[in-house]
Each structure stands twice: as C-alpha cells, then as structure tokens.
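Entry 14. Two folds queued back to back today. First construct below, sequence then structure tokens.
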Amino acid sequence: MSPRRSGGPGQPVRRLLSATDGRSRGFLAATVLLGLAVTAAILAQAGLLAHALAAAAAGTGAAALRATLIALLAVVIGRAIAASGAEAAALRGAAAVKQRLRTRLVRHALALGPTWLGGQRDGEITALATGGLDALDSYFARYLPQLTLAVAVPFAVVVAVTSADWLSGVIIAVTLPLVPLFGALIGLHTRAQTRQSWQALARLSGHFLDVVQGLATLKAYGRASAQEQVIARVTGEYRRSVMATLRVAFMSALVLELSAALATALVAVEVGIRLLYGHLGYATALFVLLLTPEAFLPLRNAAAAFHASADGTAAARRAFEILDEPLPGPRTESHGEPGGQRRPAPADPDLRSQTIMLNGITVAYPGRGQPVLRGVNLTIGPGELITLAGPNGAGKSSLLSLLLGFTRPADGEILIGDVALTDLPADRWRSQIGWLPQRPALFGWTVADNIALGDPAASPAAIERAAALAGAAGFIEELPDGYDTVLDERALRLSAGQRQKIALARLFLRDAPLLLLDEPTAHLDPASAADVDATIGTLAAGRTVIVVSHRDLAARQPSGRLVHVSDGAVTEATPAVSAGPPPAARLTMPR
C-alpha cells in the first residue's frame, strides 16, 4: 500500500464526512442540534431535580412542587425524544452516506476495469460493498451522536458546576481528560486489532468464494476435504481476531468505568465533607452530585461506540484505498485547462476511416520484473484484419486491454487519427468497440437479453438477425422457450461453442467499427472453431478487426496480416495488403 493511500488514522473519518451530500449533511446537522438539545435537557433535569429534592427535604408540600415536577417530567420526556430523534437522524444520514459511497465504489471498481479486478479477491470486494459498508451504521448512528454529546455535555457540566461550586468544577475539569486519554491509548490498539479482523474476514470471504466456484474441480481431484480444513483454519483466524478485538473492548470499558467512578467519588467525598460542616448548601450539593456522572457518561458511551464503529471505519479505509486507485486508459471527464477552465472534448473519431497508431507503448504490471510490452509501434489501418500471434504471456491480451482502455501505458501514446486516446471520454470511445473475451460472460437473463447487451435498444427482429448471422439461431430456436429461455448461471448448460456464438451475435448487433477478439476459438473443438472463424470472416466486412489467435486467420482474408508478439516486442510477419476497407458492404441491422 502506498503512503499516499494509507493516510493517517483520522483519514477515513475526514473522508467519510467529506463524502456526504446535501441530504446526508442535513441529517447530520439535525443530529448535532438534537445532541445540543439533549445537553440542555441534562442541565435542566439536574437543576429541577435538585430543587425538588431540596424543597421536599425542607418540608415543602406536593402542591407547591407541582409546577416543578411537571416541568421535570416535560424535560425528561423531551430528553428522550431528542435522544431518539438524534439516533433516527443519524441512521438516515448513514443510509445516505452508505448509498453514495457504495455507488462510488462500484462505479470506480467497474471503471478500473478487468485488469485491476483480475488482481483482486472477488470475495473481498463483495464483502466490502455489502456487509463491510453496512457496518457504518454504528459509526453514524451511535459514534457521531455520542461524539457530539462527549464534546458538548462535559463542557456544559463544567461551566454549570463551576458557577455553582468552583471547587467541584475544578476537580471535574482536572479528572475529565483522563477518560479520553485512556480511550485514545486503547483506541490505537483497537484500530490495529480491527484491521487484522477485517483482513481475516476478507481472506475468508475470498477463499470461500474461490472454493465454491471451483468445487467441481476440487471434487474431481479429491481435494474438497482438504479445502474444508483450509476454510476451518481461516475461520479460526477470523474468530481469534474478533475475540481479541472484543477483549480489548471489554478491558477498555473496565478502565473507563474505573476512571470515571474514581473521579465521581472524589467529587462526592469533598461535597459530602463540606455539606457535613455546613460549607455547602443542600440544593447546590445535590445539583453537583447529579451533574457529575453526566459529565463522564458521554465520554464512556463514545468510547464504547468507537469500538462498535471500528469495523465500519476499517471497511471505509479499504473503500477509500480503492477509490484512490488511478483510472486507466481514456479519461472519464473533460480535462481542465490551467486556470480552472475546461477545454471541450474532442469529437469522436470515425474508426471506419481513421488510423490507429501505437507509438512507443510500454506496459508494466506490478509484481512483474520486466515490462510486458516494451516500445511497441504498430499502425492499424481502417478495415484491416490483424491476427496477433505469439506464446502465452507475450502481451497479446495486453494490447487489446490498451485499446479497450483497461490498461494505462507506462510510456508512449495511442493516437486515433490525430487525437490521443487519453483525450477521449472512456464511454464514448468504448461505444465504438466490440469486444469478445476468451470466456465471454453470459448472465442469468434470457437469450435475447444476453444478445441485446450489444444494443439494448435493438428490436426482436434485429436480435434474431444477429443470431442468424452468428450461426446461433439454430440451437437457440431449439431451446425450451427459444429467445425467451432464461440461462442458468454462467450458461453452463450450453456448450462452449454455443456460448461463443451468442457472444458473437452481440457483436453483430452492436455494429461497432472496431472489433477486438481475444482467442475466440481457443476452447472450441475443430468443427466449432471453423464455424466461428467463418463467422468472424463475415463479421469483419467493413470493420477493423484485431484477433488474438493461434490460428492464421489473417492469411485467409484479403486484407489480413499476421503480427507476432514475443518478449514484449511486435514484429510484422507479412506486410499489409490494404489499408482501406474491403469492398464487401457493411452489414446493417434492422431496428
């Protein structure tokens, strides 16, 4: 973790508050105001109760105390309403902050792209975006309100007690700092324990998800029982870390209660002695004794709420680490000129006529000693079909990732005509790209909805035509509900070739001028691979196509060329035959 992202211990708190919007700030402001109302109610309650008790001890009748008792009852009810209202407002504010933070986290994780997500544990991200951020309820609903009271109530009590009895006020003012001091010392240890607990939970979530996804493989190799032991070990680590955190929390409660009790005892002893010798009035002594515990109670409650909110702040710290990850590839918003002015976004280039040039591109990944690509220069003419060939790990997929904007080059630039790729908004750039990964993702939607991912506004007729062009119409029509058949998770009931053809139908429907295909036939049998090759040949008409493949697909196309990628370098195997689009007419989809 870089120092820039780690920050100090208070960084998550400051950034949580800065992540609030107008709606959540309104709820937090209401929480503070209601906390101040609770403070005023505490002072009024102590004053009224002391007056009533002193008057009753002096022999005043119940009728004379009726107004005081009614006012005391009203104050008690008002205090309860203000306290519950403060917690309700804090919960509403917490919900607004969680929604905003969760939305930012998911959007940023998606914007970081598959390259970044591929290096993360899926279970950790899932746990963070769900239960992890839900732990912020304790922070906003309990810790922040108690923090407000921990500042306002002790100050108000010290002022009120000092005005009634200066000696008691001095004792309270001297002993009060002991509670936050001990709380801070314990909090430092709690923060470290909570971070370990969160890391253990992230490991447990990630490993459990990996085991579930690979259960068939584990069963086939007889390793399922071994993974049970691994999960048991990781679960034990999480249990021990949680129990260690709870031990610290319980010990902190003991220390804080002891320090508050000793301070209250000092005030009670000196007040009792002076009351015994007649140096202090009965009403004043009652007022001081009633207010003294109130000065320490918010501090003890804030310390307890801090332990309850530690999981939320630990999750927020990890969320902000992810939000601080720089976005790769094209920019996501307009660049600012010096002086704070924004320059207009460049017009979208026409990829059917523009040349793509990679100039001196170098790509390096963390944890790898050598760059994956070094000083790569490559010119891609409009309408070309380029096959990228080379050994595994040579950097073929990294070239596609660069063009998709999922990877940021360490050096060099990519030009689309005379416009740098980094100057184009990512969404507008990717809207001109059709991408087929090695294992295309099919979702638990209908077949028609999966194809319509290429163009959500497409008509049913356009979807069926795209499926026919991709060679998928035959098996789709044989499904129980045809195009309305709902696929199972990851469409495992379909063959690899069928899944690939549905993904190709998306590309036909998208009608994008630039197609990036990452080993589309790598996992297919020869017959299915031949069908997909033929479909790609049809799909290439009027488009620029870059295929990562071990098959020499380019050799069978009139404008194809073969590019070798090896040891981070790119070499041309055959010269380009044509830099213009082929004579075949571009396929258009009916709407």
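Second construct, same run, same settings:
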Amino acid sequence: MSKRRIPSTVWAFIAFVPWIAYWVLAGAGRVLPGAIAAFTGALGLNLYRLRTGNPKLMDGVTLAFFALHILFTGVLGSKLFLTYGGVLVYLALALMAWGSLAARTPFTYQYARDDWPREYWHHPLFRRTNEIITLIWAVIFTLGMVLNAAALVWPAHKIILATVIPHILLIPGVLLSLYFPRWFPRYALARAIERRDRPFGWRPPRFPQEPPAASDEFDVIVIGAGMGGLTAAALLAKRGLKALVVEQAHYVGGFCAHFRRLHRRYTFDIGVHDISGLGPRGPVRHLLRELGIESRLEFVRMPHEYILGDLRLRVPEDADAFVEELAARFPAEGDSLRAFFAEMRHIYREMYTDDGRPNIPTDPEVMLRYPLTYPHLSRWMDHSYLGMLDAYFADEDLKRLLRMLTAYQTDRPETLTVMQMAPIFGYYFDGGFYPKGGSGRLPQAIAEAFQTYGGTLLLRRRVEQVLVKDGTAYGVRLADGRTFRARVVLSNADPGVTFRELVGLEHLPQDYAALVQALQPTVSIFAVFLALDYNPPIAPITMYRAPDGTGMGFAIPSQVDPSLAPPGHHVMTLMTLVPQPEAATWDRTAPDYKARKAALADRLVRQAESLLPGLRDHIVTRDAATPATVTRYTGHPAGAIYGSVHPGGHLPHQTPIRNLYLVGASTQGGGVEAVVISGRWIADLLIPGGAREAYPSRDRRATYPFPLRKMGRISRP
C-alpha cells in the first residue's frame, strides 16, 4: 500500500462521525441540534473533499440528508424527521449503498482507492472486494431501517429495536471493512491460480527417483513432435525424466520444417518463415540456452515490408525509427504513435522474466503485487487489441496497418487480447529471425538435444489410442499394435482429434465433451512455392494487399540465407489465408483437386504480378500446398494452422482425464514463440523450477530410427 497520513479506514470512520453525533444528541432528546451538528460536520468534510479534488458519495449523502432534516424540522416545523427519524436515517444510508452498487461505484471503493496505488483501481478483484463490503453495509443499513420501522409498530421495544440491535449490527460491518480486504483478495487469487493451473482439480503425479526400467515404460509420452511437444519433451528429458515422443510424420517440427525441390537445389519452408522470441529475454532464446544448443544455430534477421495501396513501407530494424517513419506518414497521430509503442514495449518486456519464462504469478502474494510490479501488462492484458488501437488512434489506415501482424495469430483480429498480441510486437522490438539452413533446423536441433538427454523419438508412428482407465491416462497404443505406458501423456495433436479419436468422448464429462464438440478449426492457408532465377525487389517478408483487395504474404528467405537456392536464384513463397468453411471443402481425393489447386496457384501468381510484373517468366519450378496438404502432414482438421478453439477461446493445458495434458497452439495461440511458451509451461508444471538434481542422471540412449539429416525430405503436397 502507498503511505498516507490518514488511512481509508480512518476516513470511513470520520465519514460516520456526523451520524454518530446526530445519534448521540438525538438520543438525548436534542434532535434539531443533532441535525445542525451533523450538517456542520458534513459541510466541513465536503469542503475539504472539494479542495483536495477527492469527493465522496457518503459525504454528499450525509450533507443532503441533514440539510433536508434542518429544512423540514427547523424551518417548516414538520414532524416527519422527529417521528420517522430512525427509519429515514437508515433509508438514506441503504439507498446510498444500494444505489452505489447499481451504479457500479460501491461507496467503500471510493475510500479504498485512497489506500491503494492507482494501478489497482481498475483491477476486477479490487472492485469485487469493495462490492462485497458495500453489499454487506447495504444489508446492515436495510436491516436498520426495518428494525426502526418495527420500533414504530412496537414502541415498547423501541430501545432494543431502534438503538441496541442496529448499533450491534454496525460491529460486523466495521470488522468486515477492516479485515476482509486483507483476507479476501489472497483467497480469491489462490483460487484463481488453482483454477488456472488445475481447472479439473487433480495435481501432477510425483515421479520416482529412478526411471521406469522396462523398455515400454516412460515417465512422459508426448503425442506429436510439433514445436510445443518437442519443447516440453526436451526440457523434461534434460530435467531427468524418461520421455518418449511419437510422431506420425517423417520429420519433426510440425509447421516449423522445410523441404527441398528440383534435385534438392531449392529449400522451402512449410509454414514458419521468421521466428520471434529470440531477443535477450525471449523464450525461444532461453530454451536454446537451457538445452545447450544456442551455438548450433545461426539466426539472421528477416526485414519486413508493407505494401498497402499507396502506402509502401520498409520496417526499420529499430522500433523507434519505425515509429518515426509512421509519424512522418501519419503526422496527426505522431504523439499517439510514440505513446502507443512505448506502452507496447513496456507490456512486451513485462511478459517475460529474465530467464525467458512467461511472467505468470505462481502464488497469491506475487499476484497481489502484480499491478505494481508489472503495471503496463496488468492494465492492458485482458483488453481487446483492437480496442487498444481505438483508444490511441483515429486514423483508420493507420489502424489497418497496425493490424497487419494479427495474421500471425488469427484471421479474426477482433478476438485477440493485448496480451495475446504483445508477443507479436517482438518482431518490431527484437526482430523476427530465420535459422540458416531452413526453418526445420530449429526443431531438428531441439530433437537432437532431446536425444542427447536420453529421450526416445519415434517417427512415422501413429498413436491410435490414448489408454484410459478409471478416468486416468496411463499410456498409448500405436497403429502397429505396440503399447507404451507412462505416468503422464502430453498431446501435441489437435484437441478435437485427441478427444474424438484418441481418447473417446465416452471418457469425458458431459460438459467437456460438449466443449470438444463445439471446437472449431482456425483459419487455414494456401501457399505457392516458387523457385526463381532472379531476386524480387521486395523485402524477405512482405505483406501486400492486391488491387482486388486480396491480402497476400511473400517470404523470400534466400535473400538472407543464400544457401537455400543456387547462386543468382531465390526461393519465394506466396501465401493467402483461407477462412473456414472454405478450407473444409479441400479434399485430396476429389476428382478436381489437382485442377483446383493449379487454378488457385495461377491466380495467386497473377495477383503477385500486380506487384512484380513478369514474375512468371522467372519461375524455374512451382509447387503448392492447400488446406488438405496441411491436414495431411499435421492431422489438423480442415487444415487449421492455429489449431482448434472453442467459442470462449483456447483450451487449458489440463484436461478432465487425469495425467493427460494438452500442449501447443490450441492452448496458447499460434506461432513458434507461443507454442514454446506452452511447452515450457508444461515442463515447469511437472518439474517445478526445472530442478534436474531431483532426478539422478540416467544413462540411457535414445531410439531414433530415422537420421535427422534425412528429415528435410517431404513428398509433394
């Protein structure tokens, strides 16, 4: 709390002093002097509040009540306040309390704000605490009014009904005001952490000091070798657990992989073209350091360019220079741009600890200090990103430009919170990077580290069933009939596939089964892969709006990594998002599939030629990928590139099946940085603090039947 000379509890008592003075004098038969004394005290309080710019509802109600009392009793000679004074006193207080609740400004909240820094004022829990306290006072005042009314009916019991009991009722209100704010926030925050980490109540299992001895038994089994699953598996293996990863494809990395064409001379990326989270405090950077593989990879920065109608803008590597570029193009928004990017920079920096972990509070005391420790993130984290843009800017063209990177997360930017969008601003603050040799080099290095720490990786093996007994997952069965047992199963597969096909809806509670049935695939993509005999005059990452309004993305990683193509040649990927349900109409077995794919690829090339005239004359070879291609290699329904989500957002990591967790885009959002965070979250949950010393070093070698050097080969889409 901030230091103030007079605490709010004292001020709340002072606010009651005029009423106390009135009750004392009126009880002695001096009703009008009591009203005058109360009015004088209330007038002094209100004048002080106006002078300090801190008016209070209760002080205003007190002044108005006793002004009316003096008017009716002393000026008009009315008996109203003399006869019904007790009822009217509590009626005024009850109306004040109930009215402040109805107006969503509980009167105790006005006092509590004086004790707490501004960063807490708009926190839902701060308001909720005062809503409860005000509600209790509203009930107490209402009961006081009823008791005073009863005293009019039974005058023989007036002292008990109108004085003793109402004053006794004030005691729990005072005690509640003193102690409830100290207890309730910590209790509520502890419950919130419990719901966040364990929404279904069960706790992670404890692992024995020694690993399972049998070759078919593991501490952890991971279904799918996407970046989220690989991250969790590698960290857990390093921390001493016996881990198995089973992947249906012949390569690791999911969307973060590459393939080669035309006698392996040209290297293309499947879906990841630049990677965030590689700044000094970035989660991807710290993952590589923790695994000891940072030196194995060389990253180069990927410049960005926006071409939107008449606006053509190369994004400078320095974020401040970018802001000034934007300010020069939108001069009326210059100050707002500087303020917005400064705020976003604070939010982005506050999202991660110094060791690259997501800055998620793990106990009530830390969470209670969160608004002070991380004020910018705390203020904006749950706000709509588009709402934040509206709060800062009026120019619609500028807001459209600042929505460009939302495509890294979704085709529905209206669903994004500031916290979900802030990591994407890492592309401005720390840059987006490309691993030399192809995007697949990143997961390959993690897979190699996983094996170095004793992990077992099976490729071209499909999990057919998650084994469940009495509501607990205990292993998996593969399509070839083999079974493996484990204390924990992590699914990096699509959650719809996980529960409908691998677990079975019959093992789920009805409400969760309904949630699974409501899952919707996210947006898909259509991509055209071009090998070119020239260097297109655009940035390695270019976002373009074609004359017909179609949004397109260009990726030319060979501009920063010449090893991806022969000398003088380049590789370029054209991309456009495919919304649902159009993506669901793509079927590789359909008779017109090849013709439809070729026609759409032709159209994208024509649209690209509106920016790059004569492009088709420089094409050496061409390939394309459809939403059906995405499904083929990842198993995601309808080619969803950001997993599946339900109407309320992403699914939690924990599931109602004990010892079964979800990991990946469907829990944390799309992109390498987000799924790495997801994998680290699981690893830290299972082995808190990453304490490898808790598990003695285990002399085990991996089973890896397919050499990593061959994983770059992918058959045609």
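Quick look at the second one. Residues 697-717 have pLDDT under 50 and may be disordered. The first helix runs from residue 8 to 27.
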